[in-house]
Design goal:
About 30% of the residues lie in helices and about 25% in strands. It contains 3 helices and 7 strands. Strands 1, 2, 3, 4, 5, 6 and 7 form a 7-stranded antiparallel sheet that branches. A hairpin with a 4-residue loop joins strand 3 and strand 4. The longest helix has 27 residues.
Length: about 180
């Protein structure tokens, strides 16, 4: 009796599985959600306003020569090292100091301690990760990051709030190339 019941259950399960067609359903609406589009447009407008503000700051600063990073932020050198040849690359160990300010030059995080950073192996904000790769050993520069290259909407959940553009001083003290 037990064997017959088990066989019947197995037959029912196998038949029911074969009859189910698991195909994806088409979306009910092909139009983007109004809330999503509003958010996208707000972010575009915010990014545009921040970039325009930073460009105005750059235009008003006659003391420094700014470089467009190609990654959505700008920088200028305080100290350059013409003798150094290599830029840090993924996996290299870099000793550095950095100081974080807002665009009004108010210090958020002072340059007080050295940081050991494994290039592209640690979770720092996107602009910082790209900026480190633009400096060689014994070089110091100031970077202007719009909020989308900094901590973005979430901030750092400590001192940096939502959508705050940053001015960051980075001083590369030493670069140790990764071992192959």
């Amino acid at each position: 009796m037990k064997i017959n019941s088990l066989i019947i259950i197995l037959i029912i399960l196998s038949v029911s599985c074969k009859n189910n067609q698991h195909t994806a359903r088409e979306p009910i609406s092909h139009e983007p959600n109004k809330v999503d589009m509003t958010s996208v447009n707000n972010n575009r407008n915010l990014n545009h306003r921040e970039e325009e503000y930073i460009k105005q700051m750059i235009g008003a600063d006659t003391l420094h020569t700014y470089i467009d990073s190609g990654h959505g932020f700008w920088y200028y050198y305080i100290d350059q090292n013409e003798k150094a040849k290599d830029y840090p690359q993924a996996g290299d160990k870099v000793w550095l100091q950095y100081e974080v300010r807002d665009l009004s030059n108010n210090v958020i995080y002072p340059e007080t301690k050295k940081l050991t950073y494994l290039v592209d192996r640690e979770n720092y904000f996107r602009g910082f990760r790209e900026a480190v790769k633009l400096l060689k050993e014994n070089e110091k520069a100031v970077f202007l990051f719009p909020s989308n290259s900094a901590y973005g909407y979430h901030g750092d959940e400590k001192e940096i709030g939502s959508n705050v553009p940053l001015k960051v001083y980075i001083n590369i003290l030493k670069v140790e190339k990764k071992e192959e």
